[in-house]
Structure to design on (193 residues):
């Protein structure tokens, strides 16, 4: 193994932010600010291009930046998805009700076994995922439609029953410990490089 490549694997990258070219800045700004709840942290122009910055973390100036003027010829869906984590199932259910009231396109609540997700499109076609990890792990990918209008206890019961019958089932903390060990081993190997 090349020592330069090995040391590169020891870098621990974390998601910071993403930028989207947009064609209708007012509609997109309203959507990310009012519907998704991201405060505007800054806005201005770079040359003739308007930029609007959003963040829900005071450590990050921006987690999302919208840039006016999507270049001609780019496909509508140039980003697979942008994913945001919430802190509780109650919060995910509230969010689901909120975006459903906005009549967003392609709104689908999904159970991945290891997460509950709400997928939908922003006004310009970018796919958004808002999710919460479950207490279980199963082999991925898994995509089962789930009814987020059910009571939380029922959603948890249905999900656990689904997971217990699938390959790889284990408590998420056990899976995370295994992954932490794999990452530590890779870091050790990279350091020995």
């Amino acid at each position: 193994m090349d020592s330069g490549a090995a040391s590169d694997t020891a870098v621990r990258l974390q998601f910071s932010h993403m930028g989207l070219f947009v064609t209708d800045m007012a509609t997109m700004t309203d959507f990310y600010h009012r519907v998704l709840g991201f405060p505007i942290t800054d806005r201005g122009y770079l040359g003739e291009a308007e930029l609007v910055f959003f963040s829900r973390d005071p450590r990050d100036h921006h987690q999302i930046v919208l840039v006016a003027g999507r270049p001609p010829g780019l496909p509508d869906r140039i980003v697979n998805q942008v994913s945001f984590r919430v802190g509780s199932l109650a919060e995910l259910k509230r969010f689901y009700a909120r975006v459903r009231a906005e009549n967003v396109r392609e709104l689908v609540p999904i159970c991945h076994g290891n997460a509950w997700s709400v997928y939908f499109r922003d006004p310009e076609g970018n796919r958004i995922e808002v999710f919460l990890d479950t207490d279980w792990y199963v082999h991925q990918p898994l995509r089962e439609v789930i009814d987020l209008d059910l009571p939380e206890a029922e959603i948890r019961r249905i999900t656990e029953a689904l997971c217990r019958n699938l390959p790889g089932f284990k408590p998420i903390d056990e899976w995370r410990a295994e992954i932490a060990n794999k990452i530590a081993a890779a870091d050790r190997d990279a350091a020995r490089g």
The first helix runs from residue 3 to 9. The helical segments are 3-9, 25-35, 89-101, 152-164, 172-192. The two ends are 8 Å apart (CA to CA).
